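Protocol step 4 of 6: structure prediction from sequence.
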Amino acid sequence: MRRYDYLIFDFDGTVVDTGEGILKSLQFAFLDQGDRVPDLSDLRKFIGPPIYYSFTAFYGVPEERVADYIKSYRARYREKGVFECAPYPAMAETLQTLRRRGVKLGIASSKPQTLIYDVMRHLGITDLFDAVVGTAVDDSRHASKTDLIEDCMAKLGAADKRRVLMVGDRLYDLDGAAGAGVDSCGVLFGYGSEAEFREHNATYIIADYPALLVIVGDSDT
């Protein structure tokens, strides 16, 4: 019996490994703004939460200057960073199988929606998803992860929360799922950890995409 009719995915670190482009563009933003440039490994904490939050909470950038940092970041990301990415192994094949089984697929991400589509078009994966929900490119809407998941559920027509699974690589995805009242799945190939997932009560933890097929089940009978 199929357990879930709707799967909602985070994007960065879950569907696509966009880390190289994001981290190098963040380094450029700090350099462009005349600030100390953090190591790439230290900047990994940016992947997951909203970018506005990360600049202020992790690096103490004054709120009145965050927009300038984001502008520098996005200038480099749109020119180069969007192409510095790769889909995770077996992602496309797994999602195609789920679609053939009748599962509806969506994205709920703190990444601006226009940039999600830029990456998807570059990789040729736009047609894998039935709904894509991101944030406003000008960061005017600092939506919570729960808000994004609920918006995606509405677009997918997911009325029964018991039939929805949120898949992500960071605690924000798991907490967002809990806030929306749906099950969650942490992926170990992204930017989180098993300890993080257990601490934030992931319903499932998987090491690769094919494991989703086992979780979802192969039929609705």
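Step 5 (inspection) to follow. The radius of gyration is 17 Å.
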